[in-house]
Records
---
Amino acid sequence: MLLLDVSNIMYTGASASSSYFGEGSEFKLRSIPYFFQKVAAYYGKDKDMIAVFEKVGKMPALSKSTGYKSGRNRNPLVEWEITALKELLTRIGFPILEVEGQEADYVINNYCRMYGDSQDIYILSADQDLAANVRDGEFTTQMLSYSTVSYNINKSNFKAITGVDYNFMNLHKILLGCKSDKIKPFPQGREIYQAYFSTLESKWRRQFGYQKGTHTSADFEDSYLLPLAEFEQFVEWYRLSKYYDDEGLRELNNRRQLVEGPVFDLPRVFPVNWQAYNDLIASLNMNSACSIKAIRSGMYNKETVDEVIYILRKAQSANLTMFEGQAGELDGLEEVGDIQNILGLLDTGGAL
C-alpha cells in the first residue's frame, strides 16, 4: 500500500512550474498536476494507493499558538488546490483517509500501526518524522522519495539520511527537540539520549558476547536497538537513572503525546478505480506523465470537464481551505467566462 501525504506533496508541488487549465484561464495550477505526476510515477511500485488528508480545523488559530507546530506557513493558493483535489478524488472514487481533528502524519502513523504486520507499506512524503514508521522484516515500511536529490529511506540507510539511529526518530525528537515543530530541547536531552543509547549498547555487548572486529553496529541494531526503542523501555531506564524527577517524567509523557499523536482506528477504504482516474486525467488533458497508461490527446469527456471547472471555481470562490472546512455548495454551475477557451484548447489537443 502506498500512502500519499497529500499536503506535503502539494506544498512541494507549489515550487514546480505552473500551468493554466485553458488559455487565458484564471485557473493557474501547480500542485494538482504535480500530485497526479507522483501518482503515475509510483503506480508500478504499488498499485494500491490512499490519499491521506489533514482535517485539523483552522490553521490560522494553530499558527497563532506559541506551542507545538505553531508558525507553520500558509499558502492559500496551494490550499484551494488541495480543497479542489479532494473533491476531484472523491468524485472518481480514489480512496481517501482523513480523521476529524487529526493531522495526516498521525493518520499515517496509525495506518502503519494497524497494518504493518499484514502488508508492505510505502509512504510518499518529505516529512522525515514519518521515518519513525520505517521497519524491516516480513512486511516492510519505507519512505519513498519524490525528489531526484533525495533518497528512499529504509533500514539500511536510515541514519545516513536522517542523522538519527534506526528506529529512534521519536525518542530523538522528544529529547533533542525539533525547530520546525517548535519543540524545545528537553533539559540535558542530548546527554540523556547518549547515555541511554550507551546503556543499550553495553547490555547488548554483555548479552551477545560482543567481539570487536566480528560484531558491527549493524549487528547491534539488528539484535538490540529495535526491541528496546519503545518509549516504555526508555522510561524504565529513565526512572533508575540519575536524571529522573517526577516533573521531568510528566514533561516527557506530554512530549510523547505530541510527537507520536493519539491512537485511533481508521475507516475502511476501497481500491483505486483506475479507469475513472484515467478518465479524469484525459478530461483535464494533462500530459501522459500524469496518466497510468497513455491517453490520446483530445479524448475527453465534456461532462467531466464541466465538473472539473465547477469544482475548481467552487474551491476558489468559497475562500475556504482544507484547514477551514469544506467549500460550501453553490446553487448551480456559475458562468465561467473563459469556458470556450478551455474547451477550444482541449479540442485542439493542447496540454495543461
Note: Residues 58-66, 321-352 have pLDDT under 50 and may be disordered.
---
Amino acid sequence: MPNFDAEKAIAAARAVAEVRDDMLVGLGTGTTAAYAVKSLSDRVRLGLKITAVATSKMTETLARRLGVPLIPFRGLSYVDLTIDGADEINNQFQAIKGGGGALLREKVIAAASARVIVIVDSSKLVPQLGRFPLPVEVVPFATEFVRARLTDLGAHVVLRSIGGAPFLTDQSNHVLDAAFGEIPRLAEVAAAIGAIPGVVEHGLFLDEIDTVVIARRDAVEVRQRDSLTYR
C-alpha cells in the first residue's frame, strides 16, 4: 500500500526545487500544497530569498508560522510560479481542484502565474475526471437556484457543510459539491456551469497547469505540457 503522505512530501520537495531567488511564488491550498509550504520554508531558512502569495487564509497562517515571507495579492497582477495540489488530474493536464474550498483564489492566482506546477500523489492521476465531486462556489443568495441547475446538468449535488452549518469560503460564499461521475466533455460542462447566474467559480482547471509532478512510492515523475517527461 503506497504511503500517500510520503509521496506528497517528495513531490512537493521536487516542485520547490524549481523556485529561484527573487521569485514571487503562489502557494496553493490543501494537504499536498501544505507540504510545498513546509519544503519552501526549509529553503528560506537556508537563505532562499523569495516572497509569496497565499491562495487561502489557511495557507497564509501556515506560511507565516513557518517563516515564509508573504505579501497580499491585491495590487498584484503577476506571479512567477505557483505550486498547488489537485484532487484529480488526467494525462491532458486537466484537473479538479477545490477540495480545500479555495478554488476561486487558486484559479485567480493560477491565471496570474507565468507557470503553474501541480503536485500529486499516485492516487490523484486518473484517466478521466469526475470521480471526485466537482466543487462549485456560489453566492449564498443563489445556492438553491444553482443546485437545481447543476442537478439539471446531471449532477448529484450536496451543499458542503461543517459542524452542521454551510461551509463558507474566504469570500463568504457557499460550495456545492457536484458529483457528475466521469465527465467526458469537460469544456462543455465548464462552460455550462460558468453560465449559471450565481456561480462564482468552478473547480475545473482545464488550461492553467504547465507541469505535473507525480510521486509513486519513492520515485518522482515530472511531466511538462509540451510532452517532455523527465525524472
Note: Residues 4-125+206-230 form a domain with the Rossmann fold fold (CATH 3.40.50.1360).
